[in-house]
Amino acid sequence: MRRRTLLAAALALSLAALPGRRAGAQDVPGGGPPGGEASARERWEQMTPEQKEALRQRWRAYQALPPERREELAEKLRRFRALPPERREEVRKNWEAFRSLPPRDQEAIRERFRRFREMSPGRRAELRAAIGGLLRAPPAERARMLENLRRWRELSPEQRERLREEWRRRRER
Known about the structure:
This protein is mostly helical. The protein contains nine helices and no strands. It has two domains: about 1-105, no CATH class; about 125-170, no CATH class. It is elongated and about 70 Å long.
């Protein structure tokens, strides 16, 4: 039973990531319209030889992963399947948008995400709150905040540190 679950997980993830194919609700077992979803066998039979080979390669790569990594991926698939349909569709659209980016931009996003995960929980909460505030701000305020961020990024590390020190002194008064 466990092997079947892992196979289904790998198949679903691989189908969703096939190039040139839109990842839709029918790609994830249990994620399509009730009674209207194609079986894994039917989807397999509809695939081109290139897609089948790509899926086989992904399956071999999945099988080569350490058991703890496979379990981690299976857990992510379980969490994905547990999401409401609207949220799953949002995740799929974000994934498609990410995949359409140039490799350099994808790598920059991965690096930012890696740095975010390394932050302390408190710092991550602060960052989430700041982004939430930015998203809720009126357009004029948002534009001002983004301009300030752009100028901040242009500063050298020394200039940034001087400004941080000045802000700390002001807060202490």
